[in-house]
Design brief:
single chain; mainly beta; Neuraminidase; about 10% helix
């Protein structure tokens, strides 16, 4: 019987390896696709764009429909000096620096003197040329002493604690402010010659202004804004004081939001403590042109400015303040020389909407320091504190007003 054989295809060892490898690759690819499909890959974080509030030239309410900001004077402290910087703590105690006498006086909320300390000198706790006072959250008193550029620190009883030389500070510190987390905002000026900024020098800019943020150890953590500091005008000869120069202004609210703006633009920005700009408040407006009477009235209050030159237009604002539970109060140059002794202000609500024009008591301008910004008005604890010039007494006084926003029935 013939034997039949079943013929089986011969597969060599190399062929088997190739089949196994191909199958393994297919399994590996399929497994990889499944594995990576289960992984959530985060997309790069995107900073949300700020909310832009565009306001018209005229407020939402006017005439009989507009609210009024009512002020009632509750305290007056006569002052003997001519130039001051001050702050107020949460209890209403007033800390007043006489910059020319190099002396600090503390008053309670009723205006009763508590203690006085400080004198001219170069030792710890002594001042060469003190320029600005601000309180930290612990009510420690911080004073900028300009020639040496340190910040001297005292406790609320006047005892000297320490001094700081903040890093990366320019030739002159103008102001500082503390938020509740201990961060410090410092405004300073930079020398354009040292920066070799020929373009700004050519345009007649006096210096470069800057607002920076520091931690509680006065270590720099970031820069907020830089701008052309225009308090003087450079020419072929010496720099000359410029009347109605644009300025940079800033304020902190209770929630550690920073409000800042350059008066060259009718715009104020709101920045949260993490450095994010959340809102930009704008108003459509035209700058007011200066007139001969502006110079006449300015020289009546500041005779030492007789050699100053005057800008062609006035800034969009002169300052602004955050009013708790009300909104933003922006001082303007509208009706600047009225006989009522008031300032016309733009009032914005907490959403940044331009709601009304209001009038508030005028504060100190006579013989003020036009080069370094001296802040002579403070809204805190439901009160307005101001340094004003008393024409009858021919001197300064610090006054405290309560205030409320009153809407028509």
């Amino acid at each position: 019987m013939e034997t039949k054989y079943l013929r089986v295809p011969h597969i060599c060892e190399d062929g088997l390896n190739k089949v196994h490898k191909s199958a393994f690759r297919l399994v590996l690819v399929a497994s990889s696709i499944w594995f990576f499909s289960q992984i959530q890959i985060p997309l790069p974080a995107q900073t949300p764009a700020p909310e832009i509030i565009e306001n018209p030239e005229q407020p939402k309410y006017s005439g009989k429909d507009a609210p009024e900001l009512i002020f009632k004077q509750e305290l007056s402290i006569p002052l003997e000096g001519r130039r001051y910087s001050f702050d107020v703590d949460d209890a209403g105690n007033i800390y007043l620096l006489d910059t020319r006498a190099a002396r600090i006086a503390i008053y309670d909320k009723s205006g009763k003197p508590l203690i006085t300390f400080g004198k001219k000198g170069q030792g710890p706790g002594e001042f060469e040329s003190p320029a600005y006072l601000a309180l930290s959250g612990e009510n420690n008193i911080h004073v900028i002493d300009r020639p040496r550029r340190p910040v001297q620190v005292f406790d609320s009883r006047g005892s000297w604690l320490e001094q700081w030389q903040p890093s990366s500070i320019g030739r002159m510190m103008s102001s500082l402010a503390f938020d509740s987390s201990g961060s410090v905002y410092i405004q300073d000026s930079l020398n354009l010659v040292a920066l070799q900024d020929k373009e700004r020098i050519r345009r007649g800019v006096a210096a470069l202004g800057r607002l920076s943020k520091f931690n509680s150890r006065f270590e720099k953590t970031g820069e907020i804004e830089t701008w052309d500091n225009r308090f003087m005008k450079r020419g072929s000869g010496e720099a000359t004081v410029l009347l109605y120069h644009d300025l940079f202004y800033y304020q902190l609210d209770r929630n550690n939001n920073l409000y800042y703006g350059d008066s060259a633009r009718d715009e104020i920005r709101q920045m949260s403590s993490d450095g994010r700009v959340n809102r930009v408040i704008r108003k459509r407006a035209m700058r007011i042109r200066t007139a001969p009477r502006d110079r006449t009235r300015m020289l009546e209050e500041n005779p030492n400015l007789k050699d100053a030159i005057m800008a062609g237009t006035k800034p969009f604002f002169l300052d602004f303040h955050v009013l708790d539970k009300i909104g933003l109060l922006v001082g303007t140059y509208e009706d600047e020389w009225n006989a009522e002794g008031v300032i016309v202000c733009d009032l914005f609500d907490r959403d940044g909407v331009y709601v009304a024009k209001v009038k508030i008591p005028r504060y100190y301008t006579r013989d003020h320091d036009i080069i370094s910004e001296q802040r002579n008005r403070l809204f805190k604890n439901g009160y307005c504190y101001s340094i004003i010039y008393n024409t009858k007494a021919d001197g300064l006084e610090l006054v405290k007003h309560s205030f409320e926003l009153k809407w028509p029935n």
